[in-house]
Automatic annotation (TrEMBL):
Belongs to the saccharopine dehydrogenase family. The lineage of its organism: Eukaryota, Fungi, Fungi incertae sedis, Chytridiomycota, Chytridiomycota incertae sedis. InterPro entries: NAD(P)-bd_dom_sf, Saccharopine_DH-like_oxidrdct, Sacchrp_dh_NADP-bd. The keyword Transmembrane applies. This is Saccharopine dehydrogenase NADP binding domain-containing protein. Keywords: Membrane, Transmembrane, Transmembrane helix. One of its GO terms (cellular component) is mitochondrion. It comes from the Eukaryota. SUPFAM superfamilies: NAD(P)-binding Rossmann-fold domains (SSF51735). One of its GO terms (biological process) is glycolipid biosynthetic process.
Amino acid sequence: MASTRAYDIVLFGATGFTGKFATEYLLKSGPMNVKFAIAGRSRAKLEAVRTDIAATLTGERAERAKNIPILIADSNDQESLDAVAASTKVILTTVGPFLQYGKPLADACIRFRTDYIDSTGETPYIKNLIDAYEDEAIANNVRIVPSCGFDSLPSDLGTLMMANHFAKKGKKLASVRAIVVKMKGGISGGTIHSAAHMIETTPLTTLVKAENAYALNSKDDPATRPPASPVLFQYNKDVSRYELLWPMESGNAAYVRRSWGLLGRNYGAQFRYSESLGIFGSVIPAVFALFGTLGMLLSMVFPPSRWVVKKIFPQGQGPSPEMLKNGCVEMKFVATSEDGEKAVGVIKSHIDIGYVGTGLMLAEAAMCLALDDAVFAKAREEDVSVFGVKKGGILTAATAMSFVLVERLKKAGMEFYIEQ
């Protein structure tokens, strides 16, 4: 990457709900020598963001926040996106819906050889990137890494952790079931509107293809084995929880399977992945939770109810400060090796994972790409695991940053460990 770039990281979408948290994290916790700028359509709104964040800081960090450079760019103005991409080593974008706004920026990043991180949870968008840019991104050694927030980073890195656990024993994975056993938090208007836009504007055939278990596998890596079936309702003795349908399962599973394919299927030739929501206690609250989940999903399918949901959750708004303060998540990864051995891995976040935690993960991923080239080079040289990082392509968190990012996230307060 050219060292003459004006910035290490530019955050596009700093005025949005998630973008503000990523900006705040970079200014509060990022190294002072990181060359950082924020970008968006409205100078006034961007100035308000940096003023608000500066008011929460002291000393040099407060002064830095007050003077953080502002770049004006619009998703509908390709020239402005080109200028931003040409100015920085890494772009972190939270501007969605990505099916509507994402592709022009990704295009600029590939042409100007600028690494890219985003917060999308839209599987059809990632599929579009793969179809349009995979070969060019590989040829240009550009790392395009979508879904580095709660969609789908914990699923991806948790699976990597379990694959590595068994690899150290000379074993391969047969399956991983990721179970969300604890979660407190809320949902933002941006998330709702992105989902609604995907449903409203994407042809049904495209949505159905995106639900395919191997929708995100590269064209030269077709997968033929049937995937693990989604969980609707059952009891799981491994985690002492009732398991329910988890709405994020299909997108996260496709993302994890892309990592499996890009890593030469080193997890295990017959590897299978699935997810669920785990409910502790008696069957009654579990049944209520199941109907609540199904009701939420159905409300997004039908236009009248979807219109109501969009009115209840306007863009730019999100969970209350109290909900964010008390947020947390715990995921357990029940892994089985090809010879039948079981192990359980854990990922924990002690902050709201959907927004504050997503801001943290996005920021750490962006800093990983911008600042850790020497660490990546050393990891390749020492071959610290069988799951090496890629230099270019439409990648995943595991294939672009691997355990280099895991170590960053652990230092930032997230927990990754093997329980049994």
